[in-house]
Every structure is written in C-alpha cells, then in structure tokens.
Amino acid sequence: MNQTEKARAFHALHQKGNPIVLYNIWDAGTAKAVAEAGAKALATGSWSVAAAHGFADGEKLPMSVLVETAKSIADFVDLPLSVDFEGAYSAEPERAAANVARLIEFGAVGINFEDRVVAGEGLYPIESQAARIRAIRAMADGRDMPFFINARTDLFLAESDLAKHAGLVDEAIERGRAYAAAGGNGFFVPGLIDPGLIEKICAASSLPVNIMMRAGAPDVKTLAKLGVGRISYGPGPYRSMMEKLKQEAAAIYSLL
What we know:
Layout: H1 3-12, E1 20-22, H2 28-36, E2 42-43, H3 46-52, H4 63-76, E3 81-84, H5 93-105, E4 110-114, H6 126-142, E5 148-152, H7 169-182, E6 186-188, H8 195-204, E7 209-212, H9 220-226, E8 230-232, H10 236-253
Parallel strand pairs: 1-8, 2-3, 3-4, 4-5, 5-6, 6-7, 7-8
Helix pairs in contact: 2-4, 5-6, 6-7
C-alpha cells in the first residue's frame, strides 16, 4: 500500500462497536514484533518513545528524534502508522500544522493530538484547540492526504479522583463535538474507565471513541459492546517489557 492507501485503511479500521486495537510501540523493532503478532496498524506512545530515548514525557524528547523514530518505523514495517504527537510541539496553529507535516513527509498516516497545555497548566480553551485542529486538517487536506487526527482531551487523565469523572462528561462531549467540527477523526478520552460514562460519550460522539487500557478499565469485548471504536495501551507495553527485562537481568546477575 502507498501512504494514501494506508491512511484510508486506517480510517476504515475505526468502527464503533468493532474497535481497532493498538498495542503501542516505540521503535522499529517493537513495531516489527507487534506487526508479526497480527496487528493491522501501528501506533506509538509518547511516554514510551521518550523513555526509550532517556527522556521524560511532555515534549521533552526533541522533535527531531521523534520524527526520525517515526520514519524508521514507517520505513521498516508496511502497516499504517499513527504517531502520538502530544501537542504538536507548538501552541500556535500554523506551526503545529507545519510540525505535523514533517510526520506526513516521513510516512505517518495519523496522530494523537492532545488539548493539554504541555508547557503550562490545564487545557486549552475549546476554541483554541479547535483552531489548532483546523490548521492541521487544512494542511493535510492541502496535500490530498486523508490524515487521521485522533483528537484527545485530557479532562479525565488530569483528574485522579474517579468519583469526579461523571461531572466532566458534559464538557468532554462539548469538546468532542467541537473537535469533530474542526476536522478531527477520532475522540480520545484517556483516563476514563467507568463503563457507563464510556457508553454515554460513545453515544454522544459522532467520532469513534478511543479508550486507553489501564488498571480497572473494562476488557476489549466489553468496550466493544459499549460502542468504543479504538482501544490503545499507552505506556503499558513499555513498562511491561522493561519489567521483564529487569527481572531477567536480575536473575542473571544474582548468579554472579
């Protein structure tokens, strides 16, 4: 498949009630392993890519390193690739779009794009984030690329008290609708694990809803029944692999 065909295939994999499952990777080697395991598409996790290069999450990883990592994955594995691009390394819409253009040039067919103010506090106002999405959409459309913008809200991830998540649903729905109108293709709500609230957001969203697997989250089959269109694993695979590596290394060194 060429890049445009991959982008169209990636869109088609997002179906409410029949979600695409993305086991997040962080380099070309893990991309190959996950592809060989049966994945239909690939997605990086920003936390994992940063950690693999010795950086903290939150755009601490130089963008040049992230772009080169994406290129190495796209060159090595012939599957659609979505890149977790955090806030696109710019608060300014046109600069954010220009940064995303570099990912398109190197083979990516989609991004996660979050509404958290990466270098500050809180979330962008809805219209400000919608303006950034519009700029990215216009840039991609200008290249005749059906680029997949997975518009992420950090409302739930930023609130550690799960009892308060119900009070955030209305704003989440409002943000989802605004992001869809601006040109988003998916709506990502990491941190949300309550089945009833997930179902409510799925019912209200015109976009396929992305849930991130974490402790306490419903299983894949349950999420599908709730109407979810995309399931991802965030930093979980990286943490699991690093723990296994550490255990195996410790077993060897304990014999010395």
